[in-house]
Amino acid sequence: MQAVFTRPKTLKDTPTHFCPGCTHGIAHRIVAEVIDELSIREKTIGIPGVGCCVFLYKYLDIDVLEAPHGRAPACATGMKRVLPDRIIFAYQGDGDMASIGTAEVIHAANRGENITVIYINNSVYGMTGGQMAPTTLLGQQTTTTPYGRNFRTEGYPIRMAEMLATLEGVAYSARVALHKPKYVMQAKKAVEKAFTMQINEMGFSVVEMLSTCNTNWRVSPTEAIDKLENEMIPYFPLGVFKERTGKDFL
Amino acid sequence: MRVLTKGNIALAEGAIQAGCKFYFGYPITPQNDIPEYLAKHLPRVGGTFIPAESEIASINMILGASAAGARAMTSSSGPGISLMQEGFSYLAGSELPAVIVNIMRIGPGLGGIAPTQGDYNQAVHGGGHGDYRNIVLAPASCQEMFDLTIKAFELADKYRNPAMILADAMVGQFQEPCRLTPKDPVIIPQKPWALTGAKGRPAQLIKSLFLGPGEMEIHNLDLKKKYDTMEQNEVMYETRHLDDADIMIIAFGTPSRIAKTAIQFLRQEGVRAGLLRPITLFPFPSKAIHEYSRRIHKVLVVEMNTGQMLRDVQLACHNGTKVYFYGRPGGGIPYPDDIMAQVKKIL
Ligand SMILES: Cc1ncc(C[n+]2csc(CCOP(=O)(O)OP(=O)(O)O)c2C)c(N)n1
Ligand code: SF4
């Protein structure tokens, strides 16, 4: 019998801590598959931020450094300067990357650090119990926006993939989604592209992944998929916002 | 050969001689000579300088570089060091070596750029969260800025712990003749724990998160054992004229130099004063202070703050000892006359 679907070598055989229905795990699997397919497991180092992503080392069979909340791009910068021929990626949530760590990601991107950031946007702070994130949609209820996010008091949801794409140092910036097979395939292509950019020393690459947090959205996993499709994608359009072709920087 | 060198420059050159190839930092007076010197000279040894976007980024770049097995350093002053505290805690919790330099400026707040020792408590007793210790070295001369920087890298690697050079702006700025070659050959240890990609070995992990029941307590007890070993093996201090002293002055950094002058004058007048200068502020020379204070019952602590090391001295001293304090917390320097007057008042 031919095996058509197997566990990627880089993905450990271990029970998940993610809530049932959460798409964080899909992101892990995509990263593991890409690492396998590019044959870079033995030279890849992962740097998760703080949040539901912190347990990266439980799932990926690679070297892992756990960074302080928001600082993974700075840690990755330091590490990459020491080990320029290794593949180094940060794995951050939206609270981690678009809130506390905005400065670190913008400047790492702007320096054109040859690293990759996998950015999970689920529009809330997951691990701490569903507080508002910078990506929380207008009107969205969270524990800290109990009446719904209001732009007059909390501002607007921040679009990181577009923002980062404006920086010269960025080689690749894309937004994908994780809630349906079609999107998962696209997401994998984007991750592959981002890692390939790094392998080819093209500069900073980032893949924003729209992800569900059914637990903190207080909906069922299937409703979460609909919410992502109908509410998140209209505000956070999918696509590639920057793709450098030549190696030359400006 | 000795050359006339500024303290900050001696320190920066010390880092290069120690095999530090990675410096990340953000400007703040009075320590800017350090990044400026390293920006110029690290490339000559194949090193990397990054003008980081903030002190938070600097210390986290250090975290990444150190996890990859490199000798890395950052430097700052007052407000910048405050921003780095989270990083120190993570370095200590993750058992990563790093050298951090604090050329202290007056505070709190934006304060000013004059010399002070106001960051003693922050350096020695925490600053960051959790149960951890920094190794803290306090140079008092340009030569020590060089030598102790090399020592800081050695200790940081030996214990896989952050080590801080704590110097006031005077030590950073004054110029003295200085030997800019290491006394002993620099040896950089192998770092099999470093993250380099899991080639030919199982994947490795560097973290400070311990969520399992009891795990954090075990980790903290392990760290405590390490700090106890430092207290056993790494205490450094200097003494002057303590054998026959009626009063022991305790001071570190610039005030210790001024105290030496005061002691010289006092002795000319027949007053038997001596000095104990802690070189390591953690581990603190508590045992030595205790032993001396069994015989010398009067102790004067001189600091450029309102009495931060004073507490550690009080804890260390023998029961019967009277501990006095003289401090200048606002950028003012304690002159020899001031110290002499204090000593005469006490005796
Ligand atoms: C300095 C600091 N501030 C706050 C926290 C608490 N904290 C842990 S996870 C988290 C939010 C993470 O949210 P996100 O990055 O969106 O990840 P998710 O859990 O949703 O995957 C916060 C605020 C922390 N650990 N450190
Ligand atoms: S809290 Fe949200 S993001 Fe975290 S595991 Fe659960 S569903 Fe996923």
Brief descriptors of the model:
heterodimer; A: 250 residues; alpha/beta; 7-stranded mixed beta sheet; two-stranded antiparallel sheet; 9 strands; globular; B: 347 residues; 5-stranded mixed beta sheet; 15 strands; binds thiamine diphosphate; binds iron/sulfur cluster
Question: Topology, please?
Answer:
The complex is a heterodimer of chains A (250) and B (347).
Chain A: H1 24-37, E1 44-48, H2 56-59, E2 63-65, H3 72-82, E3 87-93, H4 94-100, H5 102-110, E4 116-121, E5 124-125, E6 131-132, H6 151-154, H7 160-165, E7 170-177, H8 181-199, E8 204-210, H9 214-217, H10 221-235, E9 239-243
Parallel strand pairs in A: 1-2, 1-3, 3-4, 4-8, 7-8
Antiparallel strand pairs in A: 5-6, 7-9
Helix pairs in contact in A: 1-8, 4-5
Chain B: E1 2-6, H1 7-17, E2 22-25, H2 33-41, E3 48-51, H3 55-67, E4 72-76, H4 78-93, E5 98-104, H5 120-124, E6 135-137, H6 142-159, E7 162-168, H7 169-173, E8 175-179, E9 205-206, H8 215-233, E10 237-240, E11 247-250, H9 254-268, E12 273-278, E13 280-282, H10 286-295, E14 298-303, H11 309-316, E15 322-327, H12 336-346
Bound molecules: thiamine diphosphate and iron/sulfur cluster (SF4).
Describe this structure as you would to a colleague:
The complex is a heterodimer of chains A (250) and B (347). Chain A is α/β, with parallel strands linked by helices and 250 residues long. Chain A has 10 helices and 9 strands. Chain A has a 7-stranded mixed sheet with strand order 2-1-3-4-8-7-9, sandwiched between helices. In chain A, strands 5-6 form a two-stranded antiparallel sheet. The longest helix of chain A is centred in the C-terminal third of the chain and has 19 residues. The radius of gyration of chain A is 17 Å and the shape is globular. The N and C termini of chain A lie far apart (53 Å). By secondary structure, chain B is α/β, with parallel strands linked by helices. In chain B, 40% of the residues lie in helices and 20% in strands. Chain B has 12 helices and 15 strands. Chain B has a 7-stranded mixed sheet with strand order 3-2-4-5-7-6-13, sandwiched between helices. In chain B, α9 crosses α12 and α10 crosses α11. The mean pLDDT of chain B is 97. At the A-B interface, β1, β2, α3 and α5 of A face α3, α4 and β9 of B. β2 of chain A pairs parallel with β9 of chain B, so a sheet runs across the interface. Bound molecules: thiamine diphosphate and iron/sulfur cluster. The site of iron/sulfur cluster has 12 residues of chain A, from α9.
